[in-house]
From TrEMBL:
It comes from the Bacteria. Keywords: DNA-binding, Sigma factor, Transcription, Transcription regulation. Belongs to the sigma-70 factor family. ECF subfamily. This is Sigma-70 family RNA polymerase sigma factor. NCBIfam families: sigma70-ECF. It comes from Streptomyces gelaticus. It holds the Pfam family Sigma70_r4_2. InterPro entries: RNA_pol_sigma-70-like (IPR039425), RNA_pol_sigma-70_dom (IPR014284), RNA_pol_sigma70_r2 (IPR007627), RNA_pol_sigma70_r4_t2 (IPR013249), RNA_pol_sigma_r2 (IPR013325), RNA_pol_sigma_r3/r4-like (IPR013324), WH-like_DNA-bd_sf (IPR036388). Residues 13-77 form the RNA polymerase sigma-70 region domain. SUPFAM superfamilies: Sigma2 domain of RNA polymerase sigma factors (SSF88946), Sigma3 and sigma4 domains of RNA polymerase sigma factors (SSF88659). Residues 104-155 form the RNA polymerase sigma factor 70 region 4 type domain.
Amino acid sequence: MPDYDADRFTAIYDGCRQRVWAYVVSRAGWQVADEVVNDTFTVAWRKLDDVPDPPLPWLFAVARNILRDSIRAEARRASFAAEVRSWAEPAEADIAEEVSERSALLKALATLPEDDRELLILSGWQGLTPAQAAAVVGCSPITLRVRLHRARRRLTQAASISPPTEEAAAVRRVSTRVRITAGKEAR
């Protein structure tokens, strides 16, 4: 970038950083302020030609959008965590074996990468066919089947690593059921 752009950005940063930080603190607290301010000025640097004069209202709008996006992301994470916790809590109608299987499966599932969990949940709990799950994650059905196979293998391995062995056996039984169910849906 030319020196003019660097000088302009530096002037915007020096002149507005404290006010943007204060705005973010007033909206979300000081714990997230530095990160949001950094992200705000990163956007300003990338879109320097779009930054109007005076820049402060535009910077406030960018910071507001970043805050909104982070709040939405946190809400999604909290919602998912609550959902997983609710799956782990046994319902009154569950028999002991189902409770043991569910607990073992969730413990093993929690150790997997997020992408593996998503595939297993889409296939096993949501009951999507490979073609439907592929559309959700944005890949071909063949790619999804390969990824799902690997995720199931990692789930079985995670179950065999974690004690006790009864729980590992329960996860293998559930994993086999998921594989059989998915195989029927693919036909």
